[in-house]
Amino acid sequence: MNIAAAANETLAHNSNLLVYGAMAVYTLAFLAHMAEWVFGSRSKVGRTAAALTAEVAEPATVTVRASAKGGTTVLDRPVVHARSAPGSRDVADGPGAAGGTEKGDLYGRIAISLTVLAWALHVGGVITRALSVQRAPWGNMYEFSTTFAAVAVTVYLILLGLKKNVRWIGLPLVTTVLLDLGLAVSVLYTASDQLVPALHSYWLWIHVSCAIISGAVLYMGAVATLLFLFRDRYEDRLGDGRVAALHERLDTLRRSGKDKQEPTFWLRVRIAGNDVLSRLPAAASLDKFAYRVNATVFPLWTFTIIAGAIWAEAAWGRYWGWDPKEVWSFITWVAYATYLHARATAGWKGRKAAWLGLIAFLCYLFNYYGVNIFVTGLHSYAGV
């Protein structure tokens, strides 16, 4: 074993330690985010929900005014509160995970600080892995997964730095990163080594980096889309009085003392679920956020496929060969193009377009996990 190889193994070992350290701090950030949601004010949210329900349920009224000269009676136009289409109601954003409480906000700030620390360790692990073999740190699924998670957290922190209202992503993001890194170190792990000959190209830096960035941003859009579907259903229930009815039912049971006799567990679970959903941004805001991030990164995903075709011509002598990875990359592109078109088409906005967005992201996930692990092709570099 020469000195260079030993140094590489040392750097690779340090990279593993940094990734494990990042996972430990991400776990603390996860617990802090949980505390942020738990200590969020329910009473304030309840008052907001009650006020909004009253506003929606307010009946139309007709005002009769008589002319001062005793002439014609004038009927004012009645005020009618009509339901809007899904995702387009005039509903304000929720107060956030902290629910407007100082204690919840404190835990939220602690969670963000821990996320920044974990991100620093995480990025250090990715860079050290690259230095251990003097190449781009995404030559197999383990390296791609760790880099993908680091970029996703980077996008989140950039949005926070730009003062965007994205703290609601914190808990699902940290949860996903922990699952991603756990899968990477336990199932996808590959020892630090050199690349196969086909990957020795500067296109590795261009093509794969674009795929990672695209995937990280598309993940943000998928989270917003999924939460939009839940929040949109919540606003439906809020508009027709079902949210307020749950609170009234529990209050009635408490006043009568029947809450000790009748099971109220599932009733409390439903109320708690509504409490969480009420603190999210409005469905319209989530839908807009998802559309904007997906539309912004779609050209980069398009360039990713084009760059891959150029690299394929340089490596294998053809631009397109219907390799499984090429096919599913194109399917993902078509799925997102369909979503963007549907989102801008009357009659397809709201839930229909949201489901298309989720299907598109599932195509991206299958293109990564399914094709790399279960399908054999020219892109079989998973290392597992």
Structure description:
With 384 residues, the chain is an all-alpha fold. It contains 11 helices and 2 strands, in the order ααββααααααααα. It has helices at residues 3-38, 42-57, 102-133, 141-161, 170-186, 203-239, 242-256, 265-278, 283-316, 324-343, 351-374, and strands at residues 64-66, 73-75. It has a two-stranded antiparallel ribbon with strand order 1-2. Strand 1 (64-66) and strand 2 form a beta hairpin. The longest helix has 37 residues, at 203-239. The protein is globular, with a radius of gyration of 26 Å. The model is unreliable at 1-7, 45-62 and 74-87 (pLDDT under 50). This is C-type cytochrome biogenesis protein CcsB. Keywords: Cytochrome c-type biogenesis, Membrane, Transmembrane, Transmembrane helix. The chain crosses the membrane at residues 17-39, 110-132, 144-162, 169-190, 202-230, 289-312, 327-346, 353-371.
Q: Which strand order spans the largest sheet, edge to edge or round the barrel?
A: 1-2
User: What proportion of the residues form beta strands (DSSP E)?
Assistant: under 5%
**What is the rounded Rg?**
26 Å
> How much helix is in the residues?
55-70%
Count the DSSP helices.
11
Task: Write down how many β-strands occur, each being a DSSP E stretch of 2 or more residues.
Answer: 2
Q: Helix and strand succession?
A: HHEEHHHHHHHHH
Oligomer: single chain
Q: Tell me, what's the shape?
A: globular
The residue-averaged pLDDT reads 82
* Distance between the ends: 25 Å
Organism: Streptomyces ramulosus
Protein name: C-type cytochrome biogenesis protein CcsB
InterPro entries: Cyt_c_assembly, Cyt_c_biogenesis_CcsA, Cyt_c_biogenesis_CcsA/CcmC
Keywords: Cytochrome c-type biogenesis, Membrane, Transmembrane, Transmembrane helix
